[in-house]
Specification:
Layout (H helix, E strand, L loop, with lengths): L1 H12 L1 H22 L8 H18 L4 H9 L2 H16 L3 H26 L24 H18 L6 H20 L3 H17 L4 H21 L1 H6 L1
Helix pairs in contact: 1-2, 1-6, 2-5, 3-4, 6-7, 6-8, 7-8, 7-9, 9-10
Length: 243
């Protein structure tokens, strides 16, 4: 449980620490599976799809012109499959993790977003790291310009966990959750990364279209998204040129 909770933080700290957290969790998962001889979790269509996908990757590598350079990296891709099933197994064992992971992700996103906004407006973040480029933000990722990518890939998970835990969240927690989602969207926009911005806009539009809420609220959400885009582009010529 601890390894899963700290995983989002370890991604910010660096890929090496994230790999340790991920692989340790996978090894503990395998140990429990073999110890209890409970292999039912693998008797799923998803596992078969993952295996087929993994085999396609290996075949592609074998017939690639760069097999020596990329074989080992792709050969160990199965660790992501194990990590996925380890999370599924862990959540079934400890249902309270849904809320805990949500709270940790919210804290991480709030810190990253505030840090990114500080770097945007003051040209350096809370640790004093300056902008590498005037049109890009790095935040707490040092010299890596991946702030927008990180936020855009995990924000849908936060939104999903927000709705999953909706009944146990009080009014203040709900307002804070919506605020974190909104400020994260702005930070993705200001990060200067185009693909993360496109993907998160597409995600939010899809979410608003398919979610079961009134048309007035849907119209309000659409208005907020497009108003935010117009305002940001109006106040920042640098971001306007970038996008």
């Amino acid at each position: 449980s601890f390894l899963l909770i700290i995983f989002p933080i370890s991604l910010v700290a660096g890929s090496f620490i994230a790999e340790i957290s991920m692989n340790s969790l996978s090894l503990i998962f395998l140990n429990n599976i073999f110890k209890n001889k409970n292999f039912n979790i693998f008797k799923k269509n998803f596992f078969l799809i993952f295996i087929i996908f993994y085999l396609i990757i290996l075949v592609s590598v074998i017939f690639s012109n760069y097999i020596e350079a990329i074989f080992f990296k792709n050969f160990f891709y199965f660790r992501y499959i194990l990590f996925t099933f380890a999370i599924v197994y862990l959540l079934k064992e400890n249902n309270k993790l849904y809320l805990l992971v949500y709270k940790v992700l919210c804290a991480v996103f709030l810190i990253l977003s505030i840090d990114g906004l500080v770097q945007f407006f003051f040209d350096h973040n809370i640790l004093g790291d300056p902008k590498i480029r005037p049109d890009r933000l790095t935040g707490l990722f040092g010299d890596k310009m991946i702030l927008g990518s990180y936020l855009s890939r995990i924000l849908p998970l936060i939104v999903g966990l927000f709705f999953y835990n909706l009944l146990v969240l009080n009014k203040k927690q709900k307002i804070l959750g919506i605020f974190i989602i909104f400020i994260s969207f702005i930070t993705i926009f200001l990060s200067g990364e185009r693909m993360p911005l496109i993907s998160i806009i597409f995600y939010f539009i899809s979410l608003i279209v398919f979610i079961n809420i009134s048309k007035k609220i849907k119209l309000l959400f659409f208005s907020i998204i497009f108003s935010t885009i117009i305002i940001v582009l109006s106040i920042s010529p640098t971001i306007f040129d970038r996008h």
